[in-house]
Amino acid sequence: MTSQVGGPELSVVIAAFDAEATLGEQLSALAVQVADLDADVEVLVCDNGSRDGTVELVRRL
């Protein structure tokens, strides 16, 4: 994959809505999957107005 100068080589987009109960496990699993990659990786969690602790969870992680 060709990257723009200074940009990530891999982007992962996760759509989330009231995902506090499952998002931590998903992000942990993703971290394991990309840990051995020799690439710059960005993860974008796109919150859709969650009313639970989704936003706080993402900020903590």
How would you describe what is shown here?
The radius of gyration is 13 Å and the shape is globular. The longest helix has 15 residues, at 20-34. It is 36% helix and 23% strand. The protein has helices at residues 20-34, 54-60, and strands spanning 10-16, 41-47. It has a two-stranded parallel sheet. The model has no long low-confidence stretch (mean pLDDT 91). It is of the alpha+beta class and 61 residues long. It has one domain. The N and C termini lie far apart (27 Å).
What is the share of helical residues?
25-40%
Count the beta strands: 2
Strand line-up across the major sheet: 1-2
State the shape: globular
Short summary of the structure?
Helix content is 36%, strand content 23%.
Key descriptive features of the protein:
61 residues, alpha+beta, two-stranded parallel sheet, 2 helices, 2 strands
Secondary structure layout plus pairing:
Blueprint: E1 10-16, H1 20-34, E2 41-47, H2 54-60
Parallel strand pairs: 1-2
Helix pairs in contact: 1-2
